[in-house]
Design goal:
Layout (H helix, E strand, L loop, with lengths): L1 H14 L9 E8 L4 E7 L3 H6 L1 E4 L7 E3 L4 E6 L4 E8 L4 E11 L2 E8 L2 E8 L4 E3 L5 E2 L5 E2 L2 H9 L7 H6 L4 H15 L6 E2 L8 E17 L3 E3 L2 E13 L8 E19 L7 E5 L2 E5 L10 E22 L4 E15 L4 E3 H7 L6 E14 L5 E12 L10 E13 L1
Antiparallel strand pairs: 1-2, 1-5, 2-3, 3-4, 5-6, 6-7, 7-8, 7-13, 8-9, 9-10, 11-12, 14-15, 14-16, 14-25, 15-17, 16-17, 17-20, 18-19, 18-22, 20-21, 21-23, 23-24, 24-25
């Protein structure tokens, strides 16, 4: 109990650390409804945040001025992303939002996202805004495919027969719709250039991190001898890979290499198969059993002194806000046992596998976290994790070791 109290006190201390960071602002400009342009700095936003409002700074140290879509014609970041105010009509209401301007031409393409998902729009010169996004159609083979948008494209681009094959291959994505709109523009207006506002930050990016973690770890030997949750520490290195999916900036891949050290545990015999289980610790033999009996041990304090290398790989989904980048993820994890206390021996496991804790454990990991920008190149993050591992060699036997772990990791990018 004292170990868990210490563990949670440490977590509370880490969470109470200041999460303040420098504002993630970059050069840009805003276009007023009057047509005037004001240069300064813009709060870096994406997704719904970028669609709902613009935060403009006259200088880096000043306070932000907030603009709604009704107060501006648009705004543009220094990296090339351009947002314009557009009016959208729904069945219930008519409202204004900022849309990302993908390409300006005879047919202009826009993009926005909200709680309902991602939306693509097309606007032909002199006509109204038309949404291309749609609910997916389910076919007999149980596949879901968007197809109605191609009919809209055929109607809008009906004055150009040469574009028809490209329409049939079009997809609801930035790259595909920009390519299609540019091809149409070149066909019908060859003497005038269209303007592509491509996202310049869509190359694969690697971010290196130093990581420190405090975890609570629990071992279960065939569900018959089970330890308490005991604190352990992690230190290691990680790589975050972003923009590896061209179609979405929201997904990222995280790969870590963590050195983990855990020491003392309290082992308890549990009512499971009704058999005695034997443990040798520091040369003394113990017959573990869940009920008190002559010559039996119900509880035993041990030092397992496990040193391991853990390699978790997670696929994360990011939900950026104005001040932070929240994420959750799911993945696989491997735990390689580098050393363990030779004075501890679970007799049945050692006789079967040659050691009490086998060399490799594998399982799944779930994480929930948040990161904050410290500067243009550096960030700080906090990450809550839960892991469930087992010995893959013992998957189909009753002599199976389980490893449960949860805790918090913090780190800083290099």
């Amino acid at each position: 109990m004292r170990k868990l109290a210490t563990f949670f006190a440490t977590i509370c201390f880490l969470l109470s650390l200041s999460l303040s960071s420098q504002r993630s602002i970059i050069p840009g400009f805003i276009i007023h409804n009057s047509g005037d342009t004001t240069y300064g700095f813009l709060k870096k936003q994406s997704g719904r945040a970028a669609s709902n409002r613009c935060l403009f700074y006259g200088d880096k140290k000043g306070e932000a001025t907030e603009y709604s879509p009704s107060q501006l014609k648009g705004y543009r970041y220094g990296d090339g992303k351009f947002y314009v105010s557009k009016t959208v009509a729904s069945e219930q209401d008519t409202f204004q939002i900022f849309m990302e301007y993908l390409i300006k031409g005879v047919n202009s393409i826009y993009f926005s996202s909200d709680s309902r998902g991602e939306h693509y729009y097309i606007e032909k010169a002199g006509t109204r805004l038309v949404e291309l996004s749609e609910e997916l159609s389910i076919y007999k083979d149980n596949t879901a495919k968007p197809i109605k948008f191609r009919g809209k494209l055929r109607a809008i681009m009906a004055d150009c027969d040469s574009i028809a094959p490209a329409i049939e291959k079009a997809e609801l994505s930035h790259i595909s719709l920009i390519k299609l709109s540019k091809a149409y523009h070149d066909y019908v207006c060859p003497n005038e250039e269209c303007v592509i506002y491509e996202r310049k930050n869509n190359k694969i990016q690697l971010q290196q991190n130093l990581i420190f973690g405090i975890m609570a770890n629990k071992y279960s030997f065939a569900n018959s001898i089970v330890s308490d949750y005991s604190p352990c520490i992690q230190i290691g290195y990680g790589i975050d890979i972003s923009n590896f999916l061209v179609s979405s900036e929201h997904f990222g891949l995280s790969i870590k290499a963590l050195l983990e050290i855990d020491h003392s545990y309290t082992l308890k015999a549990k009512k499971s198969d009704g058999y005695f289980h034997h443990v040798v610790y520091e040369g003394i033999k113990h017959k573990m059993y869940y009920e008190s009996d002559i010559g039996t041990t119900q509880q035993l304090d041990v030092n397992l002194d496990v040193v391991s290398l853990k390699v978790p790989v997670t696929l994360n989904y990011f939900l950026p806000t104005e001040t932070a980048n929240w994420y959750f993820g799911l993945g696989i994890t491997d735990k390689f046992i580098l050393s363990q206390n030779s004075d501890f021996k679970h007799v049945e496991f050692a006789n079967r596998y040659g050691k009490s804790i086998n060399t490799i454990l594998a399982g799944v990991i779930f994480n929930l976290g948040v990161s904050y920008k410290l500067s243009a190149r550096h960030k700080q993050f906090f990450n809550l994790t839960y892991e469930y591992l087992m010995d893959p060699k013992a998957m189909f036997t009753y002599l199976r070791l389980y490893d449960y772990q949860f805790g918090i990791q913090t780190g800083i990018s290099l």
